[in-house]
Amino acid sequence: MNVLQVSGLTKKFGGLTAVKGVDMNVEKGSITAVIGPNGAGKTTFFNMITGVYKPDGGEILLEDKSLVGFKPHDISKRGIARTFQNIRLFGDVTVLENVMVGLHNHLKSSVFGVLLNLPHVRREEKEAQREAYRLLEYVGLAEFLNEEAQNLSYGAQRRLEIARALASKPRVLLLDEPAAGMNPKETKELTDLIYKMREELDLTIILIEHDMKLVMEISEHIVVLDHGEKIAEGGPLDIRNNPKVIEAYLGKSAVAH
Questions:
Q1: Strands 57-62 and 2-13
Q2: Quick check: pTM over 0.85?
Q3: Nearest to 64 by CA among 79, 46, 43
Q4: Per-residue confidence at 255, pLDDT binned at 50, 70, 90?
Q5: What is the distance between the alpha carbons of residues 135 and 163, in angstroms, rounded to a whole number?
Q6: What is the mean pLDDT of residues 135-144?
Q7: Are 144 and 88 in contact (CB under 8 A)?
Q8: Burial of 185 (0-12, 13-18, 19+ CB in 10 A)
Q9: Parallel, antiparallel, or unpaired: how do β-strands 172-176 and 204-208 relate?
Q10: Mean pLDDT over all residues of the chain?
Q11: Which residues form the ABC transporter domain (predicted)?
């Protein structure tokens, strides 16, 4: 069963077509990678799925319901969360508070209730703190709950961003270059976390990643973009041996050899 269906997705910036007519079907519970050289349109593709950009053409369906035209917070409510290529944490607030930000879509308190500090608001805040702590435990960061986010190691900041994304209770999680800048130990921890989230949280995971070792190890399905167009898709073995993919990464001379 496909949880996410993308068809004919297109985005133009002036005279430049960043993404052109891309199709992708994502099976529920799968791990899918979107790869391609720099400038291939991968992040623009993610930005359309999550409502940062409105597509100039095409359709995006989450469980057969269109997402086109919705704002990022609306798409988050509908079940898609993401992390970013460049870490976007609130560096000068605590680790716990960063995760609590991700819970805001599910809080019911009104501005009036917050201003008056009503009992139900205090109860909801306590519940949010407990949920945020549970998520920190899940990603292995509970011991740092009162630390400022900017003081965490790079790998820990990546995991904190994932915890914040999980706070929105997604069904589909998009990870934009989650292993970028990580050392081998941190990459192994990330790999284990991705498998754990898929199995225990019933998540469907889509990642953009340049670490080909990680992509080939973890992905069940791979979509390859080049200059905004899909040039190949399939399993890791199919992609590894695809002449178009080899050419996109290494040039025509590599295909000849």
A1: antiparallel
A2: yes
A3: 79
A4: very low
A5: 6
A6: 96
A7: no
A8: exposed
A9: parallel
A10: 89
A11: 4-252
State the first-to-last Cα distance of the chain, in angstroms, to the nearest integer. 40
Domain map of the chain by residue range? 1-79+170-257, 90-169
**Residues paired with residue 27 on neighbouring β-strands, in sequence order:** 2
Topology of domain 1-79+170-257, per CATH?
Rossmann fold (3.40.50)
Q: Which of 69, 71, 79 is nearest to 165 (CA)?
A: 79
A 10 A CB-CB count for 91 gives: 13
